[in-house]
## 1
Amino acid sequence: MVFAKNDVDYSLYLVTDSTMLPPGTTLCSQVEAGLKNGVTLVQIREKDTETRDFVEEALEVQKICKKYKVPLIINDRIDVAMAIDADGVHVGQSDMPIPMVRRLLGPSKILGWSVGKPSEVETLAKWGPDMVDYIGVGTLFPTLTKKNPKKSPMGPQGAIAVLDALEEFKAIWCRTVGIGGLHPDNIQRVICQCVSSNGKRSLDGISLVSDIMAAPDACAATKRLRGLLDGSKYQFVDCKLNETFPTTASIQSVISQVSSNRPLVQHITNKVHQNFGANVTLALGSSPIMSEIESEVSELARIPNASLLLNTGSVAPIETLKAAINAYNEVNRPITFDPVGYSATETRLCLNNTLLTYGQFTCIKGNCSEILSLAKLNKDKMKGVDANSGNMDINLLVRATQIVAFQYRTIAVCTGEFDCVANGIFDGKYKLSSGTAGITAEDLPCMIIEDGPIPIMGDITASGCSLGSTIACFIGGLNSTGNLFDAVVGAVLLYKSAGKLASTRCQGSGSFHVQLIDALYQLFHENKPESWSASLKKF
Ligand code: 3NM
Ligand code: MG
């Protein structure tokens, strides 16, 4: 059977592995369960099967694929693909070179290539549209399926780099599927986040092995995947994600919600911040818990209005951090991420980037050097962990904040003399192939919060970290009808206004500490945002 290559549906691409079949199933029964429930493309990938058995299996699977009118691709074994007249071949970087494979297969067959980096995209772009039809972009996440992994997981940011390269080198014909460790808990996030920077393309599909092949009920597993792929909204926190602009009235409503819901704010944070952050949380009518106990994160996340602040200034064991991210994501509770000293050292860069691949963050907050580094806009290594925006170009900071918001599909906050908040949530909407339909980071809604310099903020510890606590309180306290952007902007506006008020009342840095908590307490409980000193404007 020959498929018109342009008509191939890459949305749900099943790759086989008969070493993981559950008892009572066969390769063919799992493939058929997949095809019946929405698999759109099948690849036979059997690394340890002898040629004769491989051919027999391939012929059987081919019959089923024909029944469901779905193309069949063969991994690596070009001879087998040709012998049975399969619809295409998939090869990796260390297999037979693509031009040779194409010469053997002829022009009409589907040819897929495993790609992990932009330089490989440059190569395929030079070959032109007659060579590679689609690429498997990976490895996205850790997987036990690949026995001798040659690549380390790239996360969504690695996939974005590949999509950007496809656009840069104008490989418009080349389709893409993400692969590696894809499961229902990360698929929406992957489709949502993996969009080229020009907004013009997202992944055309996802490719996976174990989620279907190792499933005791492959029909149910496939249905679940199909539902996620056919959906269009990623509701990763249970509040409103839509893009209305905050007003003093909407911020007042956020504070009322926080007051009545009394969120539980779990802090995983550095030692310097722990005590102050707990007191800030209490001043904002919320309950702090400074727990780093891995075995209780799931329970905590399930408490109504739980909210997690993850501050990487000093570091809990990575397994604890990962468990906390998974626990909060699983029950759609918000995570505020504060990557302290994001790229100050190799260790921090690696830890923060790893955490960023593990989950979906509701808000990412940093000072200007952290946000510039996250946006890959500063070339110099950061110095230390503190920074000030006083003498920095506002346009550059806004751009960096928007890039972080866009790439992580989050609300990004850049702090400094003026604070910048960009909304990259896109109402939670996602779409295969066409991404954001050309909407780029620059188009994202952005608010600037300003109140003149408050130099004494820099003379106490944990003032930046405690803005993280404030944000975590506000987003944790929202009702399901409360608006996320309002909550983050409201937190930043309150914090800045309280800082200003405290600076006019204090005698020095010691009393500033105390006055800041008093001012937060007062402004929160009065709840009159229209009287706060900091100004709020659209960028
Ligand atoms: N190729 P699972 S990762 C076959 O990165 C394969 O190119 C990969 O299996 C690549 O869905 C992978 O079970 C295994 O994680 C994917
Ligand atoms: Mg191979």
Note: Confidence is low (pLDDT under 50) at residues 381-387.
## 2
Amino acid sequence: MRNLRLADGTSLPVLGQGTWMMGDAPRRRDEEIAALRAGIERGMTLLDTAEIYGDGASETLVGEAVAGRRDEVFLVSKVAPSNASRQGTIAACEASLRRLGVERLDLYLLHWRGRHPLAETLRGFDDLLAAGKIARWGVSNFDVDDMEELVAIEGGERCAVNQILYHPGERGVEFDLLPWLEGKGVAAMAYSPVGQGGTLLRDPALAAVGRRHGVSPAQVALAFAVRRANVFAIPKAGTTAHVIENAAAADLVLTPQDLAEIDAAFPPPARKRPLSML
Ligand code: NDP
């Protein structure tokens, strides 16, 4: 699996695993755990969860999937904006750690901006860093103006990652946010990179590119997301077949012809667009 380096030198796989909507249905539990473990075995060792996913059910599932192999994985979770006061951030993180059954998160994100001042949340992150409960922090769903505000706060430049919606049908971030993040050494983590398994995967242009390489539209979408040096992606797959397919996408290199065809079907942005989020 190809790697990407964070600004602090940490090397991470370009493809990780999302877990939104996992852990909700008892009858799917065994299959979901098997899928996550299959992904880890194929190098997708970064696992993304959040306290709000299934009200903690996703974190509990991830904890079960990584039990006994904590050192092989890079765990990401997120504080909900409503909890993101200084003390609330600490309490939320401690609850996430309990559900995951681990001592420390590798990356802790503010899920999106809410009513608590960013400076408050950052103090919470600082306290968690000092206590060894998180190794680094970042944000999610931050547009350029949010990032500017963040880095103007003391310590704000230590933001490691901005997790954002990015796939061929959502390219607005290419206009300004992705270049901004590249310039500041903040990695971009693409969420919903296969368009949540919806119409994107039935798109004729992605299918045509895929046929040329003998791969699926989902694999084309993933290769598209991680083609830039600063972007990694976290597809969610609750089935081992999808996980195996996704992991293989890390080896797919899109040609200029492929990219031209994707551009024709999904034109890159010609002007600023407000950041889309789910
Ligand atoms: P994805 O784009 O990852 O799509 C997931 C869906 O696509 C599932 O239904 C899955 O099916 C299907 N799928 C996965 N791989 C394939 C494949 N190879 N072929 C066909 N279908 C496939 O959407 P998500 O919204 O889940 O985004 C990924 C992750 O990003 C989330 O799980 C979450 O961790 C994070 N996220 C973060 C957000 C934020 O605000 N920070 C917002 C949204 C997501 P199946 O499960 O049946 O295998």
Note: The chain has one domain: 3-265.
